[in-house]
Amino acid sequence: MIKEFLKDILLFLKSSSFYKGVLQTVAVITPLIVFNSFGNIIYAIPIAIGVFLNIPGNIPGTLRRKIYSTLISIVLTMAVTLIISFAKQNFVVLICTIAVLSFFISLISAYGFRGSLIAFCGLLAIVLSLVNRTTEIDLWTYVGLIGIGGLWFLLVLCISHWIAPKKDEDQLLSETLHATGSYLKIRGKLLIEKDKREQLLIKILKLQTALNEKHEILRELLLSERKQIGRSHFDEKRVLIFISLIDILELALSNTLDYSKIDVLFKDRGVLKQFKILNTTMGNHLQVLSKIMLNKKKVQNKNELLEGLVVIEKTIQKYIQSVALPAGREGIIALRNLQGYQQQQVTKIRAIRRVMNNVTKDKISFKDKEASQFITTQDYSLQIIARHFTIKSPIFRHALRLMVAIITGFTFGTLIGIKNPYWIVLTLIVLMRPSYGLTKERAINRIIGTVIGALFAVAIIFITSNTTIYMVLAAISLIIAFSLLQQSYRSAAAFITINVIFVYALLEPNSLVVVKFRVLDTFIGAVLAVIANYTLWPSWEFMNLNPTLVNSIQKNKAYLAAVSKIYHTKEIKNLEYKVARKEAFLAISNLNAAFQRMTQDPKSKQKEMQLIYEFVTLNNTFLSSLASMGSFIQNHNTTASSDNFNAFIAHIENQLENAETNLSENKTAIIKEHIKIETAEEALKSSFTTLSNQRDQQIKEGQHKIDSEMRLQLQEAHLITNQLTWLKGLSEDIYRNSTKYTVLFGRKND
Asked: Which residue ranges does the record assign to the Integral membrane protein YccS N-terminal domain (predicted)?
């Protein structure tokens, strides 16, 4: 246990998060040390503030984006500091200025995650501008020094990128390997843990969302600078690992089973136990590889994976001997399909092993133009802000809500004589998010973290008054706080509190008063944040779900068309198919994330939760079934498509088109003609029955060993027929649910 704990500590010290924490702390502290040695500490403070104001934008991304976003935040923070400093001369003017600035800065969040961090830098500048600054430096010099601090931080960013250019990539790949391992392990449990299936499916949805978010960041990091790929062996390795991880996720999705059918086919759960064990083995293998990614050690032995496949084959043979044909054929085919899936997963995992062992000869074949199609670009035009300038926009509502909360908190704190009322404002801008659930969760974590940090700091203050210890603890706590900010907000809040208290302990003799006000201000800010999110222009998730549902249906429809196309053309390396698959995965990830946010809303605001849960599940299952069909077509020599296949595709497309029309304004469904679906369904089932009869005849004639061609034809007929039938039913359910949804919420439920 202790050994594992020490290993985890070592991994943390090698992580990108800790590396950034150290660099950011060095960037803050260095000006203080240098200027203090010359007796000019007053000039170091605004430089350190300039560094601190621009740190939030240091998230994984290309160096170019980091430079641009940091330059924008430098200009923004300087402008805000200047404006607030002028406005401070009159309280009424100051309140009005804070209101206008906080509202318009919050709207920058419309430009995505990076935009929201730039907005946070601007809001942070409002808070720090409220701190009483020294009168020994004139305002323009003070603002200029803040700008110098921002440029100094940008220089540190560039130097850190030069020293370790792939640190973020390795960290993200490691995290993705670990999360993918967890995903495979849970999917294994789904096979046999019938009673826990609903909880496991919810975990699956969360993991899918997290994995798709990591894939998006990795696409930007690995594919945006394609000119380097091919010249650098290390870049090539990372892209190959990333591609394998995407394939593993698609294969896992494509193996989503109709568990109610599995329960009927395999009432004896022992048949599926070895499949679950192999899934667990694969998951553990990936999680070990995730640690090796950072430790740079040799990968573990592959024998455990290969032995697992041998056990699976023995399990299938034992099952074949225990059941009678033709009654047991469907179960055998299901096990063979599951075996084929696990063999493919083992192949992908072994491919990652070979890359990490430097023994692969695989090359990346797609071109720069192809790579660019997989990167999601952010539109930075002013039209984005204009589109959100409506009370119906969650971002607009959030900006209004935050503005009122900040004004209320600062005015309240000032009027009752709180020592540092800007701490209330700081708590508000850190905690408040458009989502009530996330705001509440962060508020709880902030309060708990602050109390824990305060208790620890007070204990140290009672034990010793040694200023050297205070300085060391202040520096260490700042490093750890920066390192944990993205991983554990509660822990980060604890270390930020420790840092603040020890900094004040160095400046003021009565540091315990600081502790009291720190906890009080945090509590006031946290309570106000939750109340504001609940009462001021609330943006409950069910109000914003409609566009996300429509987008998910649209992308599933486009993916269906791409799958149909490769079944017709047999072009397995089809770029259009891969892009459609990626966009469908992202759309379903956004839908899952929206549903998760809805579960965090108050129970009274979770309207028609069961209907929405069914809608989300149907869209997820539809995507999984599509991925299953697409994966099979890509990995097998399939027969020519038929009119019956085309009829199914047209019928499914029509159901999705009708569902989309139900949920969208000013849209009329375009219906495709096809032969009668009942006729097509009967014909496809008849095809499988004919093949089954042929196989039965072969067995009667003494041909007990099935040849590869017959096995493939049976697998194709079984899988394609079942998947098309399943997709037909799912699409009809999606249409029915969209009708119910429209009746309850209307086309525009915001």
From this structure: 72-338
